[in-house]
Write a structure and sequence with these properties.
The structure is a homodimer of 133-residue chains.
Chain A: H1 20-23, E1 34-40, E2 46-52, H2 54-63, E3 67-70, E4 75-78, E5 87-94, E6 100-107, E7 122-124
Parallel strand pairs in A: 1-6
Antiparallel strand pairs in A: 1-2, 3-4, 5-6
Chain lengths: 133, 133
Amino acid sequence: MSATDLPAPDHEPEPSALDPAIAARLRRDPNGLVAAVVREHTTGDVLMLAWMDDEALHRTLTTRRATYWSRSRQEYWVKGATSGHHQYVRSVAVDCDGDALLVTVEQAGAACHTGTPTCFSTELPVSDPAEDS
Amino acid sequence: MSATDLPAPDHEPEPSALDPAIAARLRRDPNGLVAAVVREHTTGDVLMLAWMDDEALHRTLTTRRATYWSRSRQEYWVKGATSGHHQYVRSVAVDCDGDALLVTVEQAGAACHTGTPTCFSTELPVSDPAEDS
C-alpha cells in the first residue's frame, strides 16, 4: 500500500517527537488535547486559553514559539504567524493531573484577535459581597 | 406524560438561573462546560484550571464562592467545602469567544489538592534560546 492510499487523518494524535517522559504526564481529552493557559511574563496577566496536542507542545518547547492546535481550523497555529503578535516562550509548567499547561510568554502586541491586550476583557457581574461582611 | 416518565439526564446542562444575557455569551463544550482559569487576586498567580456549567457559574457569581463541575465525580464542587481551602471570588471575566472564564479569587490555604500553592508546580524543559539571540 502506498502513502497515497492512506486515509486522511481525522486529528488522531499524530506521532510526535515529544519526550516520552513528558508525554506520559499528559492526560488528554478525547481529541488528544490539553488546555494551555497563557500568561504574560512581565505583567503576570492571563492572556488567553488555547489547546495543544503532543506535537504542539513539542514544537512550543523546542522552538520557543507558542504553538497551538486550532480546534476550529483543525491545524497547527504558531501564534503571531499571521498577526505578528508572537509569543516568545519563557517557561511551561504542567498541572497536578496533567490536563492543563501554564505557558509563560513575552507577548508581542495584543494577545487577542480582537486587538485587546488579553482575551478576558468582558467582566461579569458578581453579587454584592454583603454576606462576606 | 408525567414528570416521572422523563428519562434521567446524563449531565445535560440543567435549568439554571444564570442571567440569560450571560448564558448567551457562553460557548460550551459537548458536555455543557467552559474552562475556568483561576488566578489569585493578590499575587496574580495562576492557581488551577477547573470547569463550570451554567449552574456552577451562576452559583459562583451569586455566592462569591468558587463552584465548579467535577468531571470525575460528576457533581458540583464548592472549592474548600471539604479542604477548607476556600476561594472567595473577587471578579469573573469571560473571554472573546465565550469558552473560557478567568476567575480571580482570594485563596485560603493551598489551591492544589497536593498541598502546593498552585496546581502548576512541575516545570517542563524549554530549549536553549540560542535562536533568539
